[in-house]
Write a structure and sequence with these properties.
By secondary structure, the protein is an alpha+beta fold. Helices cover 39% and strands 20% of the residues. The strands form 4 sheets. It has a 4-stranded antiparallel beta sheet. A two-stranded antiparallel sheet has the order 5-6. The protein has a two-stranded antiparallel sheet with strand order 7-8.
Length: 231
């Protein structure tokens, strides 16, 4: 009964509010009312490219959403043709960044754009991105310091592929004496395998003990001074 009442209230709210059904906003066609979330009305919308998604009514009305994301991807492609920079490594990195965040057809969109990762407004213009980050140094790629953060100057840097692999969400990160590193880095410092560290922690050892204890004979272990290992 409560569910029916809630649905009725949501529908009534949509009727009292402006009905966007059948309207177009940029490339977006509004199909029908979806739901009310704490006073925010959501509509089922279809982009001209075929993508169907839920969009908040206030975003449609303000013009902040004009497509499913394909518009920004196309704008990037148009800039590429306009500036003739498609062969430069820095341009290719910028274009790939834009596609990951805004092109639903890109293979990596699922773990970037769909997860809410965006590019700051300033960097949607390639010339601004180039001005802030400079040309890509040889053999380096762009990396977000906070993997849950967006692409913006305060959260991006140029790093090696090896360093980037260590900054993924899947990596296990351990903190010892206030220093945080991924499991692979600690294993290289201590000279033992990542699997050994994982096994020790599974058996109840603290991170510092699991990393810096060297086994000497059955049932015995000797603690290596952490300061020595960290140099």
């Amino acid at each position: 009964m409560m569910l029916r009442l809630q649905s009725f209230r949501e529908l009534l709210h949509a009727i009292v509010s402006k009905d966007f059904s059948g309207n177009r906003f940029g490339r977006i066609s509004v199909l029908q009312f979806s739901h009310n979330d704490k006073g925010n009305i959501y509509w089922v919308c279809k982009c001209d490219c075929g993508i169907v998604k839920l969009i908040r009514g206030s975003h449609l009305k303000s013009g902040s959403v004009v497509s499913c994301g394909c518009f920004n991807a196309e704008r990037a492609a148009n800039q590429l043709r306009k500036h003739g920079l498609s062969k430069t490594p820095t341009w290719n990195i910028w274009a790939s960044m834009m596609q990951r965040c805004y092109d639903p057809n890109h293979k990596a969109y699922r773990i970037y754009g769909k997860r809410g990762i965006t590019v700051c407004e300033r960097w949607k213009d390639y010339s601004n991105f180039l001005s802030d980050m400079g040309e890509r140094p040889l053999n380096l790629s762009i990396d977000r310091i906070d993997n849950n953060g967006n692409y913006e100057l305060t959260n991006c840097r140029w790093i090696t592929q090896k360093e980037q692999c260590r900054n993924t969400r899947k990596n296990v990160r351990l903190t010892v004496q206030g220093i945080t590193k991924c499991l692979k880095e600690w294993s290289e410092i201590a000279g033992i395998s990542p699997m050994t560290i994982k096994y020790r922690m599974k058996c109840g050892m603290r991170p510092s003990e699991a990393i810096f204890s060297q086994l000497r004979g059955r049932g015995h272990r000797n603690q290596i001074p952490i300061d020595v290992c960290l140099g």
